[in-house]
Amino acid sequence: MSAAISGSIERDVLECPICMDPLQPPVYQCAVGHAICSSCHASLTNKDMCHTCSATGGYNRCNALDKILESFRVPCTNTKYGCTAESHYHEADEHKKSCPHTPCFCPEPDCVFAGSTVALLAHLTGDHMWPSTELRYNLKLTVDVQEGIHALHNRDAGLLFLMKFTPVPPFGHATSVLCVDPHATATEEAECKFRCHLSSSNTDIGWQKTSDFQVRSTNLSEGLLAPEDGGYSFVAPNTTSITVSIAKIMRDKRGNEIRLKRLRQSLLPYAIAT
Questions:
Q1: Are the C-beta atoms of residues 180 and 162 closer than 8 Å to each other?
Q2: What are the phi and psi torsion angles at 195 (to 5°)?
Q3: How far apart are alpha carbons 222 and 29 in whole angstroms?
Q4: Helix (H, G, I), strand (E, B), or coil: what is residue 33?
Q5: Which of 59, 106, 189, 208 has its CA 20 to 30 A from that of 119?
């Protein structure tokens, strides 16, 4: 019966000295013991000489290190936010990219709360009393226009969308929309994942306006994005409600957005925010 052993190990011991990526089976080593990953071994033009020490004799499989790597597991970096997963060292980054406990941050001034989108929604609605409504993609939703922020949440995806209403007298209210995504990186923020359609009308003055735009994603680590930084503003003059629908963006192999012909608005069912 085997027993587990705990301890620490230097990070560079578990990384390939050529590509600096985490080692994963199968691992190859020279006669002296310098190890490299299988990808780098395959790309070497001279496999008879060690890349590190120039020892001759070629590389051979290192079964002992393979076994160590297969048994060595590391806890998720989001342990303090509730994640209990442990991964092989070479799989830790992949887990982190989709970990449901990756934190987002409260955008309220002087608030230091951080947690998953589920925890953040509970915090915003419970501690800061923000109104919230469940959102279903591609379906129209009517939201009351009130100064402040209205949270829209999708139960299946675990994402949040924040609609901020800012008074701009005498024109009415400016509306900005952001997606709160814990996995939004600087690159992902530049490539939007969602498209929003807003519409509003005022029958008293015979006014109607619609707008369609891509929604920026952020984990709110720097607070709310300003309109000029991607938090789009839609100005609706003196109206009590605004209609919103959000759809996922589909992209081709080149990363270009695939635009489908928009369904007639009369075919999209309404859901009234309460």
A1: yes
A2: -125, 140
A3: 45
A4: coil
A5: 189
